[in-house]
Write a structure and sequence with these properties.
alpha/beta, Rossmann fold, seven-stranded mixed sheet, four-stranded parallel sheet, 11 helices, binds adenosine-5'-triphosphate
């Protein structure tokens, strides 16, 4: 394989640029050329494609977001869209494609492989919710950003003896809430993978206050419920005067952490090796600190992402 393409798709995540850089540099090292596709599968179908040089990825490793841009393009789930995409890849003489994104993006990569065009998926999302890997690109940076915010809120919560509900990202997965809850010493962590009883949450706050606790921090994953709604439910039980902070998109941006840069660099280089070997329809993962390669369909259909539920138990034991 002499010429490969790369695109980023789905939600952006810090470290995507580091992965693109690694793909370009490793491919050049192997004597291959790399073409960048702007705006994910939308740009692929539109032919928004350009050659990437060494210099195009210079000064990129430290930047958040993705310089290739990302887009949602549901039309790529149709065969018509996929065949148009392949036409464009052929027009540019591209023989294999690296797709950085989440499980939706993996489906797009698999569809192309099925049409005879080898693709490899790299897990990139702050939510850490992609099967087949212990960690995704962007998760580490995101939890450190959230942690910084939680530490600041704790200062205020303690000074005013307040209860705070902090809504963090995670529609289906509680990883961000779990990790940042433990790391910040939050009193309670509420995640979609486990039900909760609002009266128990309220009892916990009261017990803490009776023991002389100056603050109560509840980290809530957005997939459970809106933070304001959660606070209203608590205030309806007792006059807690709960304050709410919805962290929102600050969790997505920023310069990637060292860990995300290294993970992205390892994934990027491995993706080039995989395509060079002529493999397609596969995705990369990190398991027990080793990079692993597995089939996309096997990963999506037979593996599930489960957060480390031991963290929840640990937090109950040490933060209450
Ligand atoms: P995130 O988890 O960050 O949202 P994602 O990759 O799961 O990332 P999606 O919006 O689900 O995000 O998918 C990204 C893009 O992948 C879609 O906009 C679409 O272009 C393509 N895609 C999604 N599902 C399929 C499918 N079944 N077949 C082909 N392409 C798909």
């Amino acid at each position: 394989m002499k010429r490969i393409g790369i695109l980023t798709s789905g939600g952006d995540a810090p470290g995507m640029n580091a992965a693109i850089r690694a793909v370009v540099r490793k491919a050049l090292y192997e004597g291959m050329e790399v073409y960048g596709v702007n705006y994910g599968f939308a740009g692929l179908v539109a032919g928004d494609i350009r050659k990437l040089t060494r210099r195009d990825v210079g000064d990129m490793i430290q930047r958040g977001g993705t310089f290739l841009y990302s887009a949602r393009y549901p039309q790529f789930a149709t065969e018509e869209g996929q065949l148009k995409g392949i036409e464009q890849l052929k027009r540019f003489g591209i023989e294999g494609l690296v797709v950085i994104g989440g499980d939706g993006s993996y489906r797009g990569a698999y569809a192309l492989t099925k049409h005879g065009f080898p693709c490899v998926g790299i897990p990139g999302t702050i939510d850490n919710d992609i099967p087949g890997t212990d960690y995704t690109i962007g998760f580490d940076t995101s939890i450190n950003t959230v942690l910084d915010a939680l530490d600041r809120i704790r200062d205020t919560a303690t000074s005013h003896v307040r209860t705070f509900v902090i809504e963090v990202m995670g529609r289906d997965a509680g990883d961000i809430a779990l990790w940042t809850g433990v790391a910040s010493g939050a009193e309670q962590i509420i995640i979609p993978e486990k039900g909760f009883d609002i009266t128990e949450v309220a009892d916990n706050i009261r017990e803490g206050r009776e023991r002389g606790k100056k603050h109560s921090i509840i980290v809530l994953a957005e997939g459970v419920m809106d933070g304001n709604e959660f606070a209203q439910k608590l205030d309806a039980i007792d006059n807690f005067h709960v304050r709410v902070s919805v962290l929102g998109h600050v969790q997505r941006g920023g310069s990637p952490s060292a860990r995300d840069r290294v993970l992205a660099s390892r994934f990027g280089a491995k993706a080039v090796d995989v395509l060079k070997d002529g493999q397609g329809g596969v995705c990369l993962g990190l398991r027990n600190e080793e990079i692993v390669v597995s089939g996309i369909i096997d990963t999506l259909d037979n593996m599930t992402h489960t957060p480390n539920m031991e963290l929840l138990k640990l937090n109950e034991e040490i933060s209450n």
